[in-house]
Input
Amino acid sequence: MFVEQVIGWIFGACLGACLGSFSNVIAIRWHAESTVFGRSACPSCKRQIKARHLVPIFSWLYLRGHCSNCGKKIHVQYPLVELAGLLLGLIAAIRHEPFSMYTGPQFWFELIFSTALLAPLVMDIRWKVLPVEYLGGLSIIAAIINVIGFGVVTGFGFQTRLASVILGMAFAGLFFAFQVLASRGNWLGIGDIWLGVYMGAVLGWPLLPISIYLAYLIGGSVAIGGLLLGSLHRGDRLPFAPALVSGMFAAMWIGPLLYDWILTAWT
Ligand SMILES: [Zn+2]
Output
C-alpha cells in the first residue's frame, strides 16, 4: 500500500533527524568530555534550551539560527547534521520497509549504523579527532547483529556471515594500520584504523573492499577538484573520515549492484 509506504518514509526521516540531533550532542559532549545525558544548554549563555526549541531543523529555522535567550549564532553543525540524519533515515526507509517483518531489521540496522557515523564525522572535521572507544564498541555490536543475520550481511549461512564479518574487520584494520605505520601517523591516525574496523563490521566481505575503493575515489575526486578550483593547496591536510564515511554509505547503497556487475563482467 502506498499510504503505508509514505508513513514509513516519514517515520524514517523523523527518526533519522532525531538521531542526527543526538549525534550533535554526542560529538560536542564527547569532545568536551562531559556527560551525554542531561538537558542541552546554549554554549555561550549556558541557559537551558526550551523543549520546543529542540525540534530538529525546524527550531533552527524558527529561531533563524540564533539562540532565543542571548541571540548568539547557533553553529551550522546543528541543522546540517540533523538534515544529514533525516536523509539517512529517509533513504533507509525507502530501501527497507521499517514495519515489515522481513526488511524491518535491515532498516533499523542501516538507520542506526549509518547515523552513528555522524558524530565521528563532526569530530574529525571540527577537531581532527575520532572517538576510538565509541567506534570500537559499536563495531562489536554491528558485528554480532551481522553474524546473527539481521544486518547488511544476509542471505548466507551462519558460518559464511561470521567469516564475512571477521574478514571485513581484519582486512580494514590491517589495511589502515599499514598506512598509519608507513606514513608514521602523518597521513592517517589511530582513529582511522578504528573507523575502518567499524566499516568492516557493518559491511562485511566483499562490500568492505568496495567501500575502501569508493572512499579513495570520492576523496581523490574532491582533492583534485579542490586543487583545480584553488580552494585547496598542495600539502593541505584533509580530514580523511568524510571520504571513508561516504565510501561506506556508497558501498551500502550501490555496493551489491557493483559487486554483481563486476562478477558478470569478469565471468
Ligand atoms: Zn544563548
